[in-house]
Amino acid sequence: MELQQLQKSVEAVSVQYAKTFEIDRTGTWFMLKLQEEVGELVQAFLAMKGMGRDRGYSEEELRDRFAQECADVLAQFLLLAKNEEVDLEAAIQEKWLSRLGH
């Protein structure tokens, strides 16, 4: 799936989420929601690595929880970038891929 298509898909989910929970998706909300998800990712990572509470989850469940939090962080990041009208493909090309001579 292309990055822009992924952004459109997570946007559709986010719009529905906002309607369901009556959330005003402002720029500040997008940033704070990303921060919340990063915190949950850190918590899942620490549990997976045995440096935090495992809450009774198996190794497989901890790994799955970490993967789910990675997905949340990526989705919220894509939403923030979309909201701020960042062309991620162009920015990645300029910042990262240009170093490869592409």
From TrEMBL:
SUPFAM superfamilies per UniProt: all-alpha NTP pyrophosphatases (SSF101386)
NTP pyrophosphohydrolase MazG-like domain residues: 30-94
Lineage: Bacteria, Bacillati, Actinomycetota, Actinomycetes, Micrococcales
CDD domains assigned to the protein according to its UniProt record, in alphabetical order: NTP-PPase_u1
Signal peptide (from-to): none
Protein name: Pyrophosphatase
